[in-house]
Specification:
mainly alpha, two-stranded antiparallel sheet, 4 strands
């Protein structure tokens, strides 16, 4: 084999290896860029959902603070619908969050703001105060998520509120009571 043919063959192999490495680098870079863009998009969607959850939590806390005092029966139903709307919106938007522990905590807090355990004897003021405490816990959690920090530890008061439910406290392990119904003992009808 002639030296010029051998050098041309070595050059051709070098060009092929260089082209292969370049092609591999371009493919790797495109995949890496795609993964980064997807991660940034998902984080952006999660931040937008967290901001929506935060505004709903603040609105729910405000509604709980005001309460339905002095309102007509229809206005009291509207008040309950508003709370249910906030609850549903929080549940919906929490599904965009990638942190399972955060999703679970927001879901439990929002649910327990709406309902009580079977045989719940709390007054309306106690229910609202407990709901506001659960909202405050959720607000702290969403704030930690937005700052990319670990979830804060629940305070003793919130743990005490959640301890009212049966062991496990999963959404499917117990029967909940709905909004309180007062029974008028003189007429025997529910009001």
């Amino acid at each position: 084999m002639d030296a010029s043919v051998l050098s041309a063959l070595v050059g051709l192999i070098g060009v092929g290896a260089g082209a292969g490495a370049t092609f591999g680098g371009v493919v790797y870079q495109q995949r890496h860029s795609t993964r980064e863009a997807r991660a940034a998009r998902l984080r952006g969607e999660a931040v937008a959902a967290a901001e929506k959850i935060l505004s709903e939590l603040l609105a729910m806390q405000h509604s709980l603070r005001l309460g339905p005092y002095g309102a007509a029966e229809e206005e009291q139903r509207d008040y309950q619908r508003v709370l249910q709307h906030h609850h549903a919106t929080i549940q919906l938007h929490s599904q965009w969050l990638s942190d399972a522990e955060l999703r679970s905590r927001l879901t439990v807090n929002a649910l327990y703001t709406q309902v009580g355990p079977l045989g719940d004897t709390r007054s309306d003021v106690e229910r609202r105060a407990h709901g506001m405490a659960l909202c405050a816990d959720s607000i702290a959690c969403v704030g930690a998520f937005l700052r990319s920090e670990a979830l804060p530890v629940r305070d003793a008061y919130v743990d005490q509120i959640l301890a009212r439910w049966p062991e496990g406290r999963e959404l499917h392990t117990f029967i909940v009571s709905g909004p309180p119904v007062e029974i008028d003992e003189t007429s025997g009808s529910a009001t």
